[in-house]
Design goal:
The complex is a heterodimer of chains A (184) and B (131).
Chain A (H helix, E strand, L loop, with lengths): L6 H11 L3 H23 L2 H18 L10 H20 L19 H19 L3 H12 L4 H8 L3 H22 L1
Chain B lengths: L1 E6 L2 E6 L9 H19 L6 H48 L6 H4 L3 H10 L5 H5 L1
Antiparallel strand pairs in B: 1-2
Classes of the chains: A mainly alpha (184), B mainly alpha (131).
Chain lengths: 184, 131
C-alpha cells in the first residue's frame, strides 16, 4: 500500500495521530507494507521482518510527540526508526543472512525470449553483486529504488549529509559496475 | 600513476590515490534502470501476511489508547496538584499582605469574651507593679 495522498493531507493526519489512536492506525496502514518490505529485504526472513516491523511502529507510536515536520518528512523519520532498529538487530545478533536468489524477477512479457533471458541473467548477477555490498550501501539502493525516497530523505535515514549520500551512491554504482565487469 | 617532486636531495613519491573512474552518463543510466527493475521485482513478493497486519494494528491501537489514558490521568493529577499549590501560595500571599488586626474575627470580639480574657490575666497590686 503506497501513500498516495498529498503532503497537506498527510501533515493533517500526522497532527491528528499525536492525539487520536485511530489516526495513527491510518498512518500505520499507509506504511506497514513498505516498512515490512524494507526489513524483509534486509533480513530475508518473514518472522524477523514481522518482529522488526512491530518494533518500528511501537517505537514510532512512542516517539510520535517528538516528531517535528521541519526536521524531515514523516516517511524519512519512519524509515530512520526502521534503519536504527535494523542496525541494532545486526549488532545484537551478529548475523547477516543473504536474501535467497529465488527472487529472480519476472520480466515484461513483451520482450523477446532472448532479450528476456539476457535481462534475467543481468538481473541475477546484479542481485548477486547487490548482496555483496555493505549494509549501508544496500540500504541506500533499497531506499532509492524500492522506496523511492529522495536524497534528502535518505540522508536523514542514514544520518548523513545529502552530499555524502550522493557520493556514496556514485561509489556504490561504480563498485557494482566493477563487480559485474569482473564476472565477464 | 605516480608523480614525484624534488626538494633538494630528497625525493618524495606521491601516490595518486584517486578512486575508480566515474561511470559515463549512459552507463549510469543503464545500470540504474537494471537496478530499478531487479530490486523492485525482487521486493514485490515481500508483503506481510494479512493476520500479522491486522494483529499489529489492533496492538498498536490498544497501546495508543493506553498511552492516551495514562496522559489523561497524569494531566488530571498534575493539574490537581498545581491548583492546590497555587491555592496555598495565594492564601499565603494575602495572609502576609494583610496586617494581623485586620482579621474581622479578631476585631469583633464580644464583650463576654473580653471579660473572660481579662479574668485570665494575673491580678497584681499597684505595689507589686512598682517593685
Amino acid at each position: 500500500m503506497e501513500s498516495s495522498v498529498g503532503p497537506d493531507a498527510e501533515s493533517t493526519l500526522i497532527e491528528r495521530a499525536r492525539r487520536e489512536p485511530e489516526a495513527f492506525g491510518e498512518l500505520y496502514r499507509r506504511y506497514v507494507e513498505r516498512i515490512y518490505r524494507y526489513h524483509y529485504r534486509h533480513v530475508g526472513n518473514h518472522a524477523e521482518a514481522e518482529d522488526l516491523t512491530s518494533r518500528t511502529f511501537l517505537h514510532a507510536l512512542r516517539a510520535m510527540p517528538r516528531y517535528r515536520p521541519r526536521d524531515g518528512t514523516f516517511q524519512a523519520w519512519l524509515f530512520r526508526i526502521a534503519h536504527n532498529l535494523l542496525v541494532n538487530y545486526y549488532r545484537d545478533q551478529s548475523r547477516h543472512p543473504a536474501v535467497e536468489l529465488e527472487d529472480v524477477p519476472v520480466l515484461a512479457a513483451e520482450s523477446g525470449l532472448w532479450e528476456r533471458l539476457e535481462a534475467a541473467e543481468l538481473q541475477r548477477r546484479l542481485l548477486a553483486a547487490f548482496e555483496q555490498l555493505s549494509e549501508e550501501r544496500k540500504t541506500l539502493l533499497l531506499l532509492k529504488f524500492v522506496e523511492q525516497l529522495s536524497n534528502a530523505e535518505i540522508a536523514m535515514v542514514l544520518g548523513k549529509t545529502e552530499g555524502a549520500v550522493k557520493a556514496l551512491y556514485n561509489r556504490t554504482l561504480i563498485s557494482l559496475r566493477h563487480a559485474l565487469a569482473e564476472e565477464d | 600513476m605516480k608523480s614525484k617532486s624534488r626538494t633538494k636531495d630528497v625525493y618524495i613519491l606521491l601516490e595518486n590515490t584517486s578512486g575508480a573512474a566515474a561511470l559515463l552518463p549512459f552507463q549510469q543510466h543503464r545500470l540504474e534502470a537494471a537496478l530499478l527493475a531487479a530490486l523492485q521485482s525482487s521486493s514485490a513478493r515481500a508483503t506481510p501476511s494479512s493476520p500479522f497486519v491486522a494483529n499489529l494494528e489492533r496492538e498498536l491501537l490498544q497501546a495508543a489508547q493506553r498511552r492516551q489514558r495514562l496522559w489523561y490521568w497524569l494531566g488530571a493529577a498534575g493539574g490537581g496538584v498545581l491548583s492546590l499549590i497555587g491555592g496555598v501560595l495565594l492564601w499565603y500571599y494575602f495572609w502576609r499582605k494583610q496586617p494581623a488586626p485586620s482579621w474581622p474575627l479578631l476585631q469583633r470580639r464580644s464583650k463576654p469574651q473580653e471579660r473572660r480574657a481579662a479574668r485570665r490575666l494575673p491580678q497584681r497590686s499597684t505595689g507589686e507593679l512598682l517593685c
